[in-house]
Amino acid sequence: MGIINFSRKIELVLSFISALLIASQCGSQYLFSAYSTSIAEKLGFTSVQINTIGSSANYGVFLFTPLFGYLVDHCSSRLIPMIASFTLFTGYFCMAMTYQGYFKSKSVILCALYMFLTGLASSSAYLASLSTIVTNFKSYRGIALGAPVALFGSTAFIFSQINSLVFKGDTYHFLLFVAISTGSIIFMGNDNERVPLLPSEQQRKQQRRNEEPDIGGWELFQDLEAITIGSTKLLMAGVGLMYINNVGTIIKTLYLSTHDDDAKEIQKFQNLHVALISISSCLGRISVGLMSDLAKYNYNVGRIWFLLAACWYIFIGQMLVGFIITDLSKLWIGTILIGFGYGNTFGIITTITSEWFGSKRFGIN
């Protein structure tokens, strides 16, 4: 029995590490502002066209989440990330080939399709990693889920720093690097992902004593709490993504208002703010998991209060950027507030969803 328990713990640890590895590569769509202006200038896209391309990745992430959630709940936990790794590679590889001119067509629709594929792949692999952790960890989910959610938010920071230090504005080779890195790491991380890890008899008895809710599918649309949570996430995600996708254009506009056109300097500022968004989002995601666990178990404070705080962070950040900040040197204040609030929102809603509505249909929820 001792050997079996030890083996189960080893599998649990390896599965958790694999889920973290996959999650760390699934937030690359938030990197778009670091190279969006380069693509627009090279391919001759207008501001509306480049925003459409960038938004396509987010459409891929959010519009098909229920479908991928259903597949994650009913298919092998290893199949989804495996397919996602190839799809993610294909999307970024095709974008790189188009940027460099190896693909003759410079169609906005095709470029949007490539980014849409990256969003689909990121969403499906990320849901698979979260579902693995939710199924295997029944207590202190705030902390357990905070780790992959935080790594998801740190993807853009890691790649933006690599772009600044290694590629220095070489968008073609950078996109190739992102394609190879994200595709290969998700493929390798998929090897040890397991769900569910069968519990021992003692654990099964404990689970029966602490039976969790099981609400999902159409039942969510009849549940007031689910509707409230879903509506809040929709609004906060939309407002946050609006800034994340357009911060590159905002920086260029503010820079050109007081300086001559300097592509390298603009690129530095864009990489900086992508990094700030990523870091603050990462900190927001992991801190809200830790703090909400402490507040719930030590002080009996509901997690919903942390969602309210996240809304205020985003609101204040948007007000500063929209009406007060006119100097590029002060834009970081709004960037950090919006990034932190955005991370808080996704971190706390993920935990609330698993606790309020159960883990059985977590993916589709």
Automatic annotation (TrEMBL):
<feature type="transmembrane region" description="Helical">
    <location>
        <begin position="107"/>
        <end position="128"/>
    </location>
</feature>
<dbReference type="GO" id="GO:0000329">
    <property type="term" value="C:fungal-type vacuole membrane"/>
</dbReference>
<feature type="transmembrane region" description="Helical">
    <location>
        <begin position="79"/>
        <end position="101"/>
    </location>
</feature>
<keyword id="KW-0732">Signal</keyword>
<feature type="domain" description="Nodulin-like">
    <location>
        <begin position="14"/>
        <end position="188"/>
    </location>
</feature>
<feature type="transmembrane region" description="Helical">
    <location>
        <begin position="171"/>
        <end position="189"/>
    </location>
</feature>
<protein>
    <submittedName>
        <fullName>7059_t:CDS:1</fullName>
    </submittedName>
</protein>
<feature type="transmembrane region" description="Helical">
    <location>
        <begin position="304"/>
        <end position="325"/>
    </location>
</feature>
<feature type="transmembrane region" description="Helical">
    <location>
        <begin position="140"/>
        <end position="159"/>
    </location>
</feature>
<feature type="signal peptide">
    <location>
        <begin position="1"/>
        <end position="23"/>
    </location>
</feature>
<dbReference type="InterPro" id="IPR010658">
    <property type="entry name" value="Nodulin-like"/>
</dbReference>
<dbReference type="Pfam" id="PF06813">
    <property type="entry name" value="Nodulin-like"/>
</dbReference>
<feature type="transmembrane region" description="Helical">
    <location>
        <begin position="52"/>
        <end position="72"/>
    </location>
</feature>
<keyword id="KW-0472">Membrane</keyword>
<keyword id="KW-1133">Transmembrane helix</keyword>
<keyword id="KW-0812">Transmembrane</keyword>
<dbReference type="InterPro" id="IPR036259">
    <property type="entry name" value="MFS_trans_sf"/>
</dbReference>
<feature type="transmembrane region" description="Helical">
    <location>
        <begin position="331"/>
        <end position="352"/>
    </location>
</feature>
